[in-house]
Amino acid sequence: QVQLVESGGGLVQAGDSLTLSCAASARISRYNLGWFRQTPGKEREFVARISRTTGSTSYLDSVKGRFTISRDNVNYTVTLQMNSLKPEDTAVYYCAAGLSGNFDYWGQGTQVTVSS
After folding, report:
1. How would you classify the pairing of strands 67-72 and 18-24?
2. Could you give the CA distance from residue 75 to residue 23 in angstroms, rounded to a whole number?
3. CA 98 from centre of chain
4. Closest CA to 32 of 111, 95, 90
5. Quick one: pLDDT at residue 108?
6. What is the pLDDT of residues 22-66, one digit of tens each?
7. I want to staple 3 with a disulfide (CB 3.0 to 4.6 A). Which of 20, 25, 28, 97 is the partner?
């Protein structure tokens, strides 16, 4: 089992950048890691994923070219670099970890608000 704690959220203006970090309580090298987001009244939405084996990444279409997910297996962290932020990126962002196709462990979330 692993516990996840997100940080780095905040209020920024459109076009700004923000870096979200997620600290894990245990070794993360065996987990697929991901970032999701949710706005009130909507389902949680996949944002980015990085595999545990090859380090390959995948992204929500609307964030491709703007967001970058990375992992640091030595320091037990996963990061989401967000550039050229848009108001529609406003959400609570969650990091997640899983051993197979599903994500089994979730953080508490961090709020990102992008003003126009």
Report:
1. unpaired
2. 8
3. 13
4. 95
5. 97
6. 999 999 999 999 999 999 999 999 999 999 988 899 999 999 999
7. 25
